[in-house]
Amino acid sequence: NADHLLSMREQISRQIRETLTKRAETFNLILDDVSITHLVFGKEFTSAIEQKQVAQQEAERQTYIVAKAEQEKKAAIIRAEGEAQAAIVISKALEESGNGLIEVRRIDAARDVAETLSRSRGLTYLPGGQSGGSNMLLGVNTNN
Q1: If DSSP states are collapsed to H, E and C, what string results for 106-134?
Q2: Three-point CA angle 94, 86, 111, nearest 5°
Q3: Alpha carbon of 1 to those of 4, 12, 36, 38: distances in Å?
């Protein structure tokens, strides 16, 4: 009923004014104006309003979470489609040029390893040579 009070404030104010004016007439009083300056609601009503606000905030939060999940889902789909297209391109390149792409990737990886080793102190790389010997990576102690 308090919601009704809030939504129909003008009508309620007019009814209160009329009722007070009629009661005042019985005491030979004339009211020029009636103003409601302070209105206090019961604890139950205040609690209900707070619960309603909390519920609305929670609903908005859930809506945000769902929207965020949808965006993440779309991003995952786009990533997967991109990876699938990349796999198709790589497969076609392998079919057309044989193992050339794999060899280029192997050379790039070897170059990256060589750069890392060249900047590392205390490591020495000994290649196995042409006779098929094993390659060796030595950790040299530079503290002594």
Answers
A1: HHHHHHHHHHHHHHCCCEEEECCCCCCCC
A2: 65
A3: 5, 12, 18, 18
Which pLDDT belongs to residue 76?
A: 96
pLDDT at 62: 96
Query: How is residue 25 written in tokens?
Result: 């007439």
**SS3 at position 138:** strand
**Average pLDDT for residues 81-107, to the nearest whole number?**
84
Cβ neighbors of 93 (< 8 A, separation 6 or more) are: 100, 101
**Is the C-alpha dihedral spanning 126, 127, 132, 134 positive or negative?**
positive
